[in-house]
Write a structure and sequence with these properties.
The chain is mainly alpha-helical. It has a domain at 2-100 and 128-230. It is built from eleven helices and no strands. The chain has helices at residues 2-21, 25-35, 40-64, 70-92, 101-121, 135-152, 156-167, 172-197, 205-228, 231-253, 261-287. The relative contact order is 0.20. Belongs to the 4-toluene sulfonate uptake permease (TSUP) (TC 2.A.102) family. It is found in: Cell membrane; Membrane. Pfam families: TauE. Keywords: Cell membrane, Membrane, Transmembrane, Transmembrane helix.
Length: 293
Amino acid sequence: MRSLIVLVLVGLAAQLVDGSLGMAYGVTSTTLLLAVGITPALASMVVHISEVGTTLASGLSHWRFGNVDWEKVGWLAVPGGVGAFVGAVVLGSFISAEAAEPIVAVFLFCLGGYVLARFAFDRRGRLIEARRVPRRLLSPLGLFAGFLDALGGGGWGPIGTSTLLSSRRMEPRKVVGTVDTSEFIVALSASAGFLVSLSLSEVPWSIVGALLAGGLVAAPIAAWIVRHLNSRVLGTAVGGFILLTNANTFLGAIGAGEKVDLPVYAIIVVVWTVALYFSISALRKERRPVFES
């Protein structure tokens, strides 16, 4: 009973972060399940089945608060669903995604640094450029992110959110809401792929239920946060989170020794804190009333 309560809290925390920043539900939940001895394929299956419910609730909540760009949902979700189904079948055949992890981590780490710098420190012009996001970007992005999401137990949010944010063509809240809403199709397709390659009797439904329960509670709270959080602050928060969650794999990919791990993490936290300070300070200046003499 105690372990199920812990899983409910994990599901709540994971969905609160995912719904607010557009990433981390799969990564957080999968990491915990692997730590208790569940196989990678089964852990990813559990996470994606629970995500069918949490992403539906998250999408409805984001829609309710006006965080979704419906024109882009289909162009992301359909290719994402195809990629997720294929990735699930591949993972169910016991092929690992470890070879791709370093490349993806380097890509995301660089994007995270760009997003953080852009939203926190750039004072030139507008943060968001009112330009159309081309479909030739959305569809390949959805396909690639969906495939890696099913293969590695997480990746749809980090890849989708960070890439769209770096384009600077959408408001951060619209990015988060659109990516989260599209993820329903991805989770549904991945679950179908796992059911093709794995047995339904293998699914630990009590774990699925616990993660789902926590996620359902957190979904509307996260959508409310996104709706009311300033674009500059939200973009800065996402950028720092991307750096922090990909730092370990990034350092391994470039051959850095373990001795530099702690200093690098400390630097990221300090830079992130300073960036948030700059973002909040800029927000206060923007909202400060101007009195004419």
